Structures are given as structure tokens and as C-alpha cells.
Amino acid sequence: DFAVDGVLDQFCDWIYGKLITFFGEFFSMINMMGAELFELDWIKAILLFFYYFAWALYIVGIVVAVFDTAIDARRGKGSFQDLALNIIKGFFAVSLFTVVPIDLYVFCINLSNELIGAIAGMSDSPGKLGAIATMVVSIVFVILIGYAVIKVFFANLKRGGILLVMMATGSLYLFSVPRGYSDGFVSWCKQVAALCLTAFLQ
Known about the structure:
By secondary structure, the chain is mainly α. The chain contains 7 helices and no strands.
């Protein structure tokens, strides 16, 4: 009896490990589809367009900021140090707003994939599950993971598109950054970070 139970536990552990490995690889494949979106040539062309558009808005914003500061300086209120600081902030923002979100998104997805691989690797070794759970719990875990795959399938596919749209709208904030109005751009950065965190914590 004990020998049969031990063999059954080891068999359940093996099945559980293989299923977790399968679901982990499937999750990784789905996650990478959102990241690989940015490797397509036509997506790169769209990003390049918004990159140049952001530079144009940034330059116009600098011109407007210089005139605003000159007018304020005649009244004794303008600060050329603040203007220079805002121009530097805008330069970094316009240079990196199409690079950092993609790199952060890919980093979060790769980190998630590594975590899934580690979990699958832990469940691959026989005997671990038999010590902490029964066959019923194993089946429940597999059902839950299968449900999660179906639940988040379309959400993972659309996150890359959402990030693309966010980068397109992010270019519109770069007119205001040289003028000292950076609240909108900071909120945009928080939204990008939240999207990447969602991709990791899904």
C-alpha cells in the first residue's frame, strides 16, 4: 500500500511539474508576443514618426518658454535658471520617451518569464509536491493555472498595443515640459510604469 502511494505521489508530482512547465512556457510565449510587437518595421516607423513629432513640439515649446521667460523677466519675475533646467528636463524626456517604456516593458516580461521558469523548475523535482500537498490540491492548481491562461490571454496581447498608444500620446506632453509644466508628463510616466508592473504581476 505504501509503495503504491509513493509511486502515485511521484507520478502526480511528475504530471504536475510537466503541466506547470507547459503553462509556464505558454505564458512566456504569450508575454513575448506583446514585446515582439516593437520589433516590427511598421511599428518602428510609427515610433519614429512620434519621436520626430515630439522633437518638433519640444523645439516649439523651447521657443515659447524663452518668450515667456523674457516677458516675465521684464516684470522682474522670470528665472533663466528655471528655464535652463526645464529645457534639460525636456531634452531627457524627448530623447528617452520611446526608449525607456519599451525597455522597461521587455525587462518586466523577461523577469516574469524567469519567475515562471523558476516556479516550473521547483515543481519538476519529484517528491516535493507529495510532501506538501495531495493529488486533489495538484489538480486544483492545474485548473487554476489553466483558467489564468485563458483569462489573461487577450489582456497580454493588447498590452503591447496599449504601450504603443501611450507613447504616441506621450509626445504631446513634450510641448509643456520646457515651459515648466511637467505634471502631465509625470502622470504619463506613472501610467507607463503601472502598465509594465501589470505585465509583471499578471
